[in-house]
Specification:
The chain is an all-alpha fold. The protein has two helices and no strands.
């Protein structure tokens, strides 16, 4: 029985981690847009897009 409990804990942890990673944009983008100005946010967005394209 302890094996099933460990497996369930690991599956639950992976589910929570996946949820947090997927919701990161909903939490992080409003904070960035409020703290950065429009031009700085545009530069940040271009850097993020460029880095994601370069790594693929």
């Amino acid at each position: 029985m302890p094996e099933y409990k460990l497996f369930a804990q690991r599956v639950g942890l992976m589910g929570i981690t996946t949820l947090i990673v997927n919701l990161r944009g909903l939490i992080f983008i409003p904070i960035l847009t409020k703290t950065l100005g429009a031009s700085d946010y545009g530069i940040w967005a271009q850097i993020i897009v460029t880095s994601s394209l370069v790594t693929r």
